[in-house]
């Protein structure tokens, strides 16, 4: 009896949770996540704080790309270019308009890369498969060269260096700069993720999926595939811009060499590794981007490998992990975890039983 | 109790929002970090760190610097260390990518807690971390780059330059070319960053009229065919290459491919003939020639002894250290020697700082001490003058490994001052204290 009541009570709570507005649910989840970050950064050292922040900006870039690939079915080999735009917007604003507040800088960086996303998206919405991949590839290869073309304004290959305001004076005794920076990064990231989650689960997401699954059917139902594709591209570009701006904020630098083809490709690899079209998958991908590199270096150091091996070990590890994951769990880490979870639940409830 | 945590998060978020209303670029002048600390120092060890390109476009050649430095530190440790402390030397690879430099320097300072940074390499890379190092109160010794910005004691009191700066070196190159090739048309091939701008500021003073063509290259783009054609078309008879070893080698190869044979002049950063030899060798094999022939006649500037020089007391010591402490596959190059000299001067500074080592005592020692020795020109770390080596000599390479000194060392300043000869008694290894109690 009591067990039943407990279950009904829990079901009622869950039911209410599910029926509350989606935005509210996502905001509450973001707040909880932010609380987790605050706690996590409070118990870790400054260096780990910075690493947590690094995961944050990678996460938003990967999440944007995951939305583009998983939900709208497009591909982009050029997302590093949007990070480039975000980072340089941030850098130029900090250098030339030092009085401009950080949130405005971030919004402007997002706006700049969204504008670039409109231009690119409008052109690429007509392309499919390898043509789309090729067109976006041009971005990744070509855009960083703009900084070399205008060395006076953009600093050439040395890039731009600047300092950003750290912890506000009122808190500077209790909160070290790295912890503060990681809070700023994660607050921005979580707010962006709320937007992405809402898009993905909402009406727009449904329409995007419809276009992805059958363009002709979607068009016959009154949707406009070209425009929808462009919208997805713009949102995804905005996420990339935000990631770049946060990176610039965190590191105080923007250089063309950081936004090369390798970055765009590793973002794509992270999406595949984590699992397409899911925010949790984006988190696993971002974690892998940051930690496989760290572990690779640590392992090489511990084993006393020569420089040539040591420097390639992280890339080799990442590649091996990617291959293994795709072979074992074709839907990425998140897909694998979901399957595991489902298997465990079925066993607990027994065949034929219905979870909740 | 259960309500408290969300409250913390809400407050933190609110604080973030209000704080973010002040300008992102308005950096408050914080209190300087205390230097009366001995971070990274124990009774029997002192921890130093550096960032180096062990991979990427700048790695050929430069990856040997830390090998040379480690050999000298191993030697010092074997002699009992500095004031009884063994030197621990952490080398982090940044691949010449400024973003990674920031990450690895964060790691060195915040996680590994190094006492001082030694010889961080590269202008675009190290420029990203000098603010951070000075804020954190980490002495930033002997930056491996000739940029002018390391010598700014007012704004960056803890950063000390090392190699002769690009402008000084270029002035000496310019004067030498103007005096010895007065009628030649001169072409300049340069790296399109501060190396290019700083060196041209120096060359301009002596070669203004003679320079007929200037061709930049971007580090990372190895196709320099168009630039070499432009140099040839402009009729440059002397080509001054302000570039890193990889591009010096590419320039020589590309010129040979189109049958263009100007007199090449290299600056110290790209003139390591042993490294160039290695880079050229694989290509030369295909052509049937030898790399050594391609380098014959190369004129270069330098401020350290050549690795091939004879009768040099410091080279005797370094050769001995090389044989004992450097892994066999590493050739003895000028770049390796560069790291060895850097490590020697670092050890001298640690000795001069005395047995009670703090960051302040190290900086004081740098300001008051003499660090002449291995280098062929005077070295300055005085208060208000953190520039490092003050001048350069001119040398010419002859096939077979012999280098000839064309012009004895001269010193100058980074502005428009004259280039002068100088009196300089160079101490031998026995007269310099760089290990012991």
TrEMBL record, chain A:
Name of the protein this chain belongs to: Amino acid/amide ABC transporter membrane protein 2 (HAAT family)
Example of a GO MF term: branched-chain amino acid transmembrane transporter activity
Annotated InterPro entries: ABC_transp_permease, LivM-like
GO CC entries: plasma membrane
Pfam families referenced in this protein's UniProt entry, alphabetically: BPD_transp_2
Principal cellular location given in the protein's record: membrane
Entry superkingdom: Bacteria
Bilayer disposition of the protein: Multi-pass membrane protein
Keywords: Cell membrane, Membrane, Transmembrane, Transmembrane helix
Localization (cell): Cell membrane
Record carries keyword Electron transport: no
TM stretches of this protein: 23-43, 55-73, 80-97, 103-124, 131-150, 180-199, 231-250, 262-292, 313-331
TrEMBL record, chain B:
Pfam families: Peripla_BP_6 (PF13458)
Stretch forming the signal peptide: 1-24
Domain Leucine-binding protein: 46-401
SUPFAM superfamilies: Periplasmic binding protein-like I (SSF53822)
Superkingdom classification of source: Bacteria
Keywords: Signal
Family: Belongs to the leucine-binding protein family.
Name of protein: Amino acid/amide ABC transporter substrate-binding protein (HAAT family)
Species annotation: Allonocardiopsis opalescens
């Amino acid at each position: 009896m009591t067990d039943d009541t407990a279950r009904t009570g829990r079901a009622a709570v869950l039911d209410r949770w599910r029926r509350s507005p989606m935005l509210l649910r996502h905001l509450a989840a973001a707040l909880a996540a932010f609380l987790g970050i605050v706690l996590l950064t409070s118990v870790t050292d400054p260096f780990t704080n910075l690493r947590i922040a690094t995961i944050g900006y990678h996460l938003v870039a990967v999440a944007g790309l995951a939305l583009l690939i998983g939900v709208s079915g497009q591909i982009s080999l050029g997302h590093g270019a949007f990070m480039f735009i975000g980072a340089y917007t941030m850098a130029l604003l900090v250098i030339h308009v030092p009085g401009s507040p950080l949130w405005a800088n971030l919004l402007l960086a997002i706006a700049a890369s969204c504008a670039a996303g409109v231009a690119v998206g409008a052109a690429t919405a007509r392309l499919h498969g390898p043509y789309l991949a090729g067109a976006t590839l041009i971005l990744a290869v070509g855009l960083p060269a703009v900084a070399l073309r205008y060395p006076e304004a953009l600093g050439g290959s040395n890039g731009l260096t600047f300092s950003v305001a750290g912890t506000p004076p009122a808190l500077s005794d209790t909160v070290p700069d790295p912890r503060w920076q990681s809070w700023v990064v994660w607050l921005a990231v979580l707010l962006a993720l709320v937007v992405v989650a809402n898009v993905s689960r909402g009406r727009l997401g449904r329409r995007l999926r419809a276009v992805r699954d059958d363009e002709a059917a979607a068009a016959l139902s009154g949707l406009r595939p070209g425009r929808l594709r462009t919208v997805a591209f713009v949102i995804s570009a905005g996420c990339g811009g935000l990631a770049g701006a946060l990176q610039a904020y965190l590191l105080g630098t923007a250089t063309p060499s950081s936004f090369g083809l390798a970055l765009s490709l590793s973002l794509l690899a992270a999406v595949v590794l984590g699992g397409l079209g899911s925010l949790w998958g984006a988190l696993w991908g971002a974690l892998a981007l940051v930690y496989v590199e760290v572990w690779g270096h640590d392992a090489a150091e511990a084993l006393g490998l020569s420089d040539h091996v040591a420097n390639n070990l992280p890339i080799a590890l990442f590649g091996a992990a990617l291959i293994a994951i795709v072979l074992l769990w074709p839907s990425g880490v998140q897909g694998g975890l979901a399957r595991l979870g489902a298997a465990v639940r079925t066993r607990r409830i027994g065949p034929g039983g219905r979870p909740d | 109790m259960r309500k408290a945590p969300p409250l913390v998060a809400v407050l933190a978020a609110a604080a973030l929002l209000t704080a973010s209303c002040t300008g992102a670029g308005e950096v408050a002048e914080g209190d300087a970090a205390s230097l009366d600390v001995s971070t990274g120092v124990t009774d029997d060890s002192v921890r130093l760190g550096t960032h180096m390109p062990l991979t990427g476009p700048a790695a050929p050649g430069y990856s040997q610097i830390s090998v040379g430095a480690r050999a000298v530190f191993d030697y010092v440790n074997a002699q009992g260390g500095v004031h009884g402390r063994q030197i621990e030397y952490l080398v982090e690879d940044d691949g010449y990518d400024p973003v990674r430099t920031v990450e690895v320097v964060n790691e060195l300072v915040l996680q590994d807690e190094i006492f001082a940074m030694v010889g961080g390499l590269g202008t675009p890379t190290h420029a990203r971390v000098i603010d951070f190092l000075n804020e954190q109160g980490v002495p930033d010794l002997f930056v491996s780059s000739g940029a002018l910005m390391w010598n700014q004691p007012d704004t960056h009191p803890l950063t000390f330059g090392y190699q002769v700066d690009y402008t000084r070196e270029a002035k000496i190159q310019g004067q030498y070319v103007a005096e010895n090739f007065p009628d030649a048309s001169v072409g300049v091939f340069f790296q399109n960053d501060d190396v290019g701008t700083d060196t041209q500021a120096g060359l301009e003073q002596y070669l203004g009229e003679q320079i007929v063509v200037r061709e930049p290259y971007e580090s990372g783009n190895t196709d320099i065919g168009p630039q070499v054609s432009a140099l040839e078309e402009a009729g440059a008879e002397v080509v001054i290459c302000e570039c890193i070893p990889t591009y010096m080698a590419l320039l020589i190869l590309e010129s040979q491919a189109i049958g263009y044979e100007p007199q090449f002049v290299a600056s110290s950063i790209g003139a390591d003939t042993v490294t160039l030899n290695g880079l050229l060798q694989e290509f030369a094999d295909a052509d049937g020639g030898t790399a050594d022939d391609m380098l014959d006649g190369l004129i270069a500037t330098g401020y350290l002894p050549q690795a091939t020089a004879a009768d040099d007391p410091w080279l005797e010591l370094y050769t001995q250290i090389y044989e004992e402490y450097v892994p066999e596959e590493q050739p003895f190059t000028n770049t390796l020697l560069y790291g060895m000299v850097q490590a020697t001067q670092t050890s001298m500074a640690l000795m001069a700082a005395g047995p009670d080592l703090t960051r302040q005592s190290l900086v004081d020692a740098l300001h008051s001490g003499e660090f002449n020795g291995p280098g062929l020109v005077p070295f300055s770390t005085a208060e208000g003058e953190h520039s490092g080596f003050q001048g350069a000599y001119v040398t010419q390479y002859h096939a077979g490994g012999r280098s000839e000194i064309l012009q004895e060392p001269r010193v100058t300043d980074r502005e428009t001052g004259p280039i002068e000869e100088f009196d300089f008694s160079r101490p031998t290894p026995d007269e310099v204290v760089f290990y012991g109690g």
